[in-house]
Amino acid sequence: MKEKGQVLTLDMFLALSLTALLLSYSGLVMEQVHTRAQEEVSRYSLERVAGDAAEALVKTRGFPENWEDRPSTLQVLGLAEEPNVLSIKKLAYLRELCRSGNWDPSKPEVQAVMRLFGGQNFEVRILLRSLLVRENAAGLNYTLNTTLQGVKVYVRLENRGSTLRSTVKLEKEGTVKEQTEQGTIFSMVVSLYPLTVEVVSDGKTVGVWCEEVIWDLWPGWDLGGTPGAE
Description:
By secondary structure, this protein is of the alpha+beta class. The protein folds into 2 domains: 1-123, no CATH class; 126-215, no CATH class. 34% of the residues lie in helices and 36% in strands. The chain is built from 3 helices and 10 strands, in the order αββααββββββββ. The strands form 3 sheets. A 4-stranded antiparallel β-sheet has the order 3-10-9-8, with no helix packed on it. A hairpin with a 2-residue loop joins strand 4 and strand 5.
């Protein structure tokens, strides 16, 4: 009986130990799953706020529609002159409002801006995208040397028989970003603020696109530093 009791006690001890280990492991897994779920919800929430804000800014005039004439009456921010056409006057006023000396959360117009973005941690970036050149892949031999937005831009496109070769080099104030891509069908992007150059080849033609940051606004943008969104 004594030996049986000892065996039974040992079996119970091993079973309890395994149960404790399983519960501990399950707890860790559940914690990781919960953390990941919270991160996904937070990311989705931020993306939705950004998407809704962008939609409202470019498609609506705001309320009242002529708020730029009397900024203190602003209740709902909108930057459109008509759907998908931005008003330069409204943009200019938002830019001035975001200056450090003008940004006062007690002002009704500032509160209207904060309501749209869910607080002061936001950035509004106005971009201009244009096609610099499109060339046929056959016999391709093209070089671009120019300066845009204070950035020196060098683009070299070549057809090397069985493959296409693209080199992009951006330089500004001692900072250099350079990339080379080879193939028949490819896409490459090189960025150096406030410029982004994209080269796209579909095997038949090669296009070079340029995206320029025209305005970059956040509360206190005139003090330098980083955007509120960062």
